[in-house]
Amino acid sequence: MTGAKRLAKVEQEKEEKRVSDGKELTPLKQGLALEDVHFGYNKDKEILHGINISVPKGKTVAVVGPTGSGKTTIMNLVNRFYDVDSGRITIDGTDIRKFTIASLRNSVGIVLQESVVFSGTIFENIAFGKQDATLAEVEAAAKKAQIHDYILSLPKGYETEISENGDTFSTGQKQLISIARTLLTDPDFLILDEATSNVDTVTEEKIQVAMDEVVKNRTSFVIAHRLKTIINADKIVVLKDGTVLEEGSHKELLNRKGFYYKLYTDQMVLD
Ligand SMILES: Nc1ncnc2c1ncn2[C@@H]1O[C@H](COP(=O)(O)OP(=O)(O)O)[C@@H](O)[C@H]1O
Ligand SMILES: [Mg+2]
């Protein structure tokens, strides 16, 4: 745990050097926008070819698209794991490169597809983002994330030691832990890449309930794989080969009878 925190701190200090203005992010007022974003991991191969997406405050925007269309890449840019080559990403109209990485990471909650657990107790794993979190707070978050009962079924409950490569949790359950961690830090803005692989039906249902809970009253940008998440989104952005093909509500997109319609009638074979 201490090791992970120290590592996070070193990474953060390293990353602060990339920041120009060092502004602090204030609570979200308007939302997030990608404006004509171009990006490639290598200079000779552009992956995103001028992406425009707006995520208005309080809304859930779902990105869908086939494997390799650039969904994860977009999230990498929003998290500033990488920076855009041209165009910009803004929060409330300010380029995200102007904010300190620390304040960006503090106000943006991230739940990744392959959610991470650290070695330490379950309590520490959930409390990770919030210093001085109480057991009651951790339990409340775990309940909302649908993982409390499972934790209690373990002999040592919240004091169970887990190892990073241990098998205490399945992939889906790790995502629930990650959702609990996010609920506890209560971020304004949420980025979520839904887990798909190796999720059994029971966990699947739990993820659905936890998802509803975590996006509620929040601004969310979700890489959606689950049909229910997609249908419930305020807006769906359809991505293909690094370009936005279509956007609209589920109904609007079906009526268009375009690529989304095809994805949907092909039973949403999405990655
Ligand atoms: N780290 C990387 N270095 C180079 N190319 C990458 C990297 N990550 C992804 N790509 C490429 O970027 C494209 C988009 O990938 P990705 O954003 O992961 O798509 P999706 O999440 O929609 O499946 C793919 O062609 C992929 O091969
Ligand atoms: Mg991906």
Instruction: Report how far apart the termini are.
Output: 32 Å
State the helical fraction.
Answer: 25-40%
For the report, how would you describe the main beta sheet?
A: 6 strands, mixed
Strand fraction: 15-25%
Structural category is: alpha/beta
Average pLDDT: 88
Low-confidence stretches: none
Rounded Rg: 19 Å
Bound ions, cofactors and other small molecules, one mention each:
adenosine-5'-diphosphate, magnesium ion
The number of helical elements comes to 11
User: What is the number of strand segments?
Assistant: 12
What would you call the shape?
Answer: globular
What are the SSEs and their pairings?
Blueprint: H1 2-16, E1 31-39, E2 48-56, E3 60-64, H2 71-78, E4 86-91, E5 94-95, H3 101-107, E6 108-111, E7 120-121, H4 122-127, H5 135-144, H6 148-153, E8 161-162, H7 171-185, E9 189-193, H8 201-215, E10 219-223, H9 227-232, E11 235-240, E12 243-248, H10 250-256, H11 259-265
Helix pairs in contact: 5-7, 7-8
The structure holds adenosine-5'-diphosphate (ADP) and magnesium ion.
